[in-house]
Amino acid sequence: MRMLARRIGFYLLTAVAAVTVDFLIPRVIPGNPVDAVLAHMQGQAVTKATLRALEEQFGTKSRAGVWGQYTHYWSNLAHGNLGVSTSEGMAPVTTVIRGALPWTLGLVGTATVISFVLGTLIGILVAWRRGTWLDNLLPLTTFFQAAPYFFLAFLAIDLFAIKLGWFPSGSARGILDFPALDWTYVSDVLDHAVLPALTIVVASAAGWIIGMRNVMVTTMDEDYVLIAQAKGLPKRRVIWYAARNAILPTISSFSLAVGFIVSGALLTEIVFSYPGLGLILLNAVQEADYALLQGIFLIITMAVLLANLAADFVYVFLDPRTRQEA
Amino acid sequence: MAIGTTAGLGSAPADEGGLLPAPDAAGRRMRLQLPRSPKVLIGLGMLAVFLVVAVFGSQLAPYDPSRSFSATASFPQPPSAAHWLGTTQQQQDVFSQLLAGGRSTVLVAFIAGLVATALSVVIGVTAGYAGRLADDLLSMLANFFLVLPALPLLIVVLGFLKTSQGGHDLLIGLIIAVTGWAWGARVLRAQTLSLRGRDYVESARIIGERGWRIIGFEILPNLTPVVASSFLFTVLYGVGTYTSLAFLGLVNPNHWSWGGMLFYAQVAGAEQSGYWWLFIPPGVAVALLGTSLALINFGIDEFINPRLRAAGLSRRRARRAGVSGLPRRFVLGVTPVIRRDPAAAADGTGLIPAGGLDGRGIDGRASQARPSREQRNRARRGRDGRGRGAR
User: Which of A29-33, A136-140, B171-175 has the lowest mean pLDDT?
Assistant: First the structure.
């Protein structure tokens, strides 16, 4: 358990560092963010309170020193105050994010799990049948891997939504008001989620396939796999023994992958006009809504850290060696 | 932006070390020699085409990519003889934009790749060689950058930068590099750790060689394949990231790039209206550029871990290389390794099966197709001997 404690400590430290980075960016980068925000707010009445809030947020005219601003930033954070969003009519950033977060969590979470399971299974299969036609799958997956997620989203909409008309081409639901959590509503939401989820799965599964296949090919040459085969165990059992051990490095490379998947998924949401974090991120970029940008960065970072922590727990659960430390 | 390349997820076991190319029998250090598989050759060929486009793209383009051809037409025009890939909403030539857009994409990606690789070599090798506190601190720094989601961070940074000086290729490349070095550093650290304990490094240390000399002459040359792999990986990452940033409109819009073209395609609602010529050319260009890098990376992966190479061994190629009786499907626990034998290079193929010098195929049956080198030599000696005796 010492290993888990160390990991938790590391993630806490990383979270603190991420918050610090978030605090420092507007203060380190040249230029005056407040002016930029005001330039984008032409035609809107800017109250003195808003102006002061902005100046405080970016530290342009604060009387407190950097350290004072930093502690103030933390206390704001502790109170759930991430500033106000200038692009969403001065709503608190937390409210804006809270509206978008469930959609992203649902879509990206489900798609990531599906792609991991599917990609790993295909990877096992390709490795087991190496030297057969299945090897030709690899260059193809490479193409999907190298293509930007949002380009695949373009293709998916053009083909499945417009030309074939199988699925809706955008948005997260057709029924705009929230009637009740009944089947019509749920099926409508699922219907809208199929294409974006498919895009994310196709784009991200390639990485898992290649990763799993490469580790599996190495694992299959281990003696214990040969012995399992020699003992005459059923083939399924032998594959299971090899795969169980091959999956460990894949899980430990999860940290690299999850950040990419989340980033790619955000851009996918933009193409599908899916009302998640990606879409408000685009708005924030276009409207120079810095407070919202920073808030989204923080939320995504925390989500990615949590996902990593979960992967670490799974790793400790799967690999007994990590549990019996001296 | 789909990156988790062969170097990323694939060579995870390389972390454990021991997969490095060992000095060969003659005691020479093995150079990074890409296997001449079709994958690598196609990858190199494609990359060459992209480099030509990057350098001469603007000169090759039939028109000025920003020139508007019609003030009256208000919809993107489909491909025609005059405009091979059609026109955009603003009636600009898509083909010219595609050719002109390659430069910034390739440039930013290579700047990011070079800088990030330099960072990862310095940090990774230092951490692996120095050990102790320096290792702990540097490893932690790398892990921090590894778990930090890079794209959201880049979006925040460039969002703020836009106010003053966004859209500068060199600057964007540098910023991407700062977020992209960590994985390479981690792999290099692990490999350095495994090299540090080897006898030849130990003896260099005992002789009294200085640290920088040991790193530069004993360790770094053996890290070449890993460095090359992490360079390609970072370039691939740079391509994806730059395209994503341009797609979000965070890069100077007057600066043509493939991501920027996708940005304008999205603005024009291309996917909803069936204007496929607006998004397919730039998207395929990015994907093919990435594919070419990944294919070369396959070659390096196969160099580092020969098991992967054998996996791609087709029966025909295997027979040509002299491995006969290759089973229909591979046999568990047996990896046919084909390696280049300098002595046998003269006989045409230059390839010998690893277990094949004794004339046996990998399944243990005697090879019928080709006698081994030894057999041939023995036969020649015998013939010569007889000849002399008869005289």
Answer: A29-33
Which residues 65-104 of A are in CB contact (within 8 Å) with B?
A: none
Of A141-155, A172-186, A260-274, B54-68, minimum mean pLDDT range: A172-186
Handedness of CA A286, A289, A290, A294 (dihedral sign): negative
Q: Is the pLDDT assigned to residue B25 strictly greater than 50?
A: no
Encode pLDDT of B239-251 as tens digits: 988 988 888 888 7
CB count within 10 Å of CB A222 equals 15
Q: Is B366 strand, coil or helix? A: strand
Q: Determine the Cα–Cα distance for residues B331 and B308; give it in Å rounded to an integer.
A: 15
What string of DSSP letters covers B26-68?
TSPPPP------HHHHHHHHHHHHHHHHHHHHHHH-SS-TT--
Q: Do B151 and A271 touch (CB under 8 A)?
A: no
In this predicted structure, the answer to whether residue B31 has a pLDDT above a threshold of 60 is no
Q: Round to whole Å and give the CA distance between B94 and B86.
A: 6
Q: How many CB atoms lie within 10 A of CB B87?
A: 28
- Distance (Å) of CA B366 to CA A115, B328, B341, B359: 45, 17, 20, 6
The backbone region for B330, taken as left when phi is positive above 0, alpha when psi lies in -120 to 50, beta otherwise, is beta
More confident residue, A248 or B2: A248
Shortest alpha-carbon distance between residue B284 and chain A (Å): 7
Q: Are B295 and B34 in contact (CB under 8 A)?
A: no
In three-state secondary structure terms, A91 is: strand
Query: What pLDDT, on the 0 to 100 scale, is given for residue B315?
Result: 52
Contact indicator for B39, B298 with CB cutoff of 8 Å: yes
Mention every residue, 6+ apart, whose C-beta is less than 8 A from residue A170: A157, A161, A272, A273, A274, B272
Cβ-nearest to A286 among B240, B249, B280: B249
Q: What is the average per-residue pLDDT within B34-43?
A: 76
Reduced to 3 states, what is the DSSP secondary structure of residue B87? strand
Confidence of residue B263 (pLDDT cuts 50, 70, 90): confident
Residues B362-386: tens digit of each pLDDT: 443 333 344 444 444 544 444 444 4
CA distances from B256 to B158, B262, B274 (A): 18, 11, 23
Higher per-residue pLDDT: B94 or A17: A17
Tell me the whole-structure pTM to 2 decimals. 0.78
Answer for the pair A261, A204: CB distance below 8 angstroms, yes or no.
yes
Cβ–Cβ < 8 Å for A171, A275: yes
Three-class SS of residue B222? helix
* Candidate from A145, A211, A282 with C-beta closest to B294: A145
| DSSP line for A1-57 | -HHHHHHHHHHHHHHHHHHHHHHHHHHHSSS-HHHHHHHHTTTS---HHHHHHHHHH
Give mean pLDDT, residues A257-270: 83
Contact of B91 with B103, CB cutoff 8 Å: no
B interface test, pick of A14, A22, A150, A220 with most B CB neighbours within 10 Å: A150
What's the confidence (pLDDT) of residue B3?
36
The pairs formed by A6-15 with CB atoms below 8 angstroms and a separation of 24 or more are A7/A309, A7/A312, A8/A309, A10/B140, A10/B143, A11/A305, A11/A308, A11/A309, A11/B147, A13/B140, A13/B144, A14/A305, A14/B143, A14/B144, A14/B147, A14/B148, A15/A301, A15/A302, A15/A305
> How high is the ipTM of this complex?
0.82
Q: Using an 8 Å CB-CB cutoff, list chain B residues near A26.
A: 160
Of A212, A221, A281, the CB nearest to B155: A281
C-alpha separations of A94 from A99, A263, A278, B233 in Å: 9, 20, 15, 36
C-beta atoms surrounding B132 within 10 Å: 8
